Probable 6-phosphogluconolactonase (Sorghum bicolor), 277 residues
Amino acid sequence: MESEIMAPYETKQNCEIRVFESSDEMATDLAEFISQASEISVKERGYFAIALSGGPLVRHMRKLCEAPYNKTLDWSKWYIFWAEERAVAKNHAESNYKLAKEEFISKVPIPNGHVYSINDNATVEEAATDYEFVIRQLVKVQRVGVSKINDCPKFDLILLNIGPDGHVASLFPDHPALEVKNDWVTYITDSPEPPPERITFTLPVINSASNIAIVATGEDRANAVSFSISDCQEGPDAKTIPAGMVQPTDGKLVWFLDEAAASSLEAANGAYEHQGY
């Protein structure tokens, strides 16, 4: 049975926490969440701009490839981006594009021209510049929205993983990339996880999204999840780890957690209430 952890006090951000007993329950709820975001965006804007991350996240999207979503969603209105990508060839085992293609994109009728992978023939610096240029062009023609607060692109949904160290996208703890404010896409050449060269959305772009979902599974993420959600409750001045710096300026943040990833929440806060829905 799916349960939601409700904080006993009001948070400063529009932050929701969902905890699941099984991977299948998580995938089912995540599919419904994405579906609703898609339907609302298509109705309001005519398009749905979604940014994916690497790691296991795409596998949690598997229910979208099944009924009813594979038939009911307006896939022709989807535009797919990557919030992070490794600077490797598209057919490389560590390519986020390759994983998304195999696990999701190839199984639903999204037009090929609506899938925006990075230029894997360029240097990582050039690839980041090129990717930002592509996004800027799509903002001009309104395929991607724009924030009224800071003129950043306003993606309809950004999906993120969280690492055991609390990193999201390719924004790692204490890395200079966390401080980039003026660029939409930046690059790193010294990732603490292989491969070292990556591009990533910057924090202002992530926080400008209409919806952000962070998926976490496993006990090795539990402490990072607990610290991050504490930051969310304390507001934008609390900056211990990158995931805690994900605080939407005008949008909604939802955490999708298995019980292992959520295990430190009750230990840290004691008074969380579980209620099914």
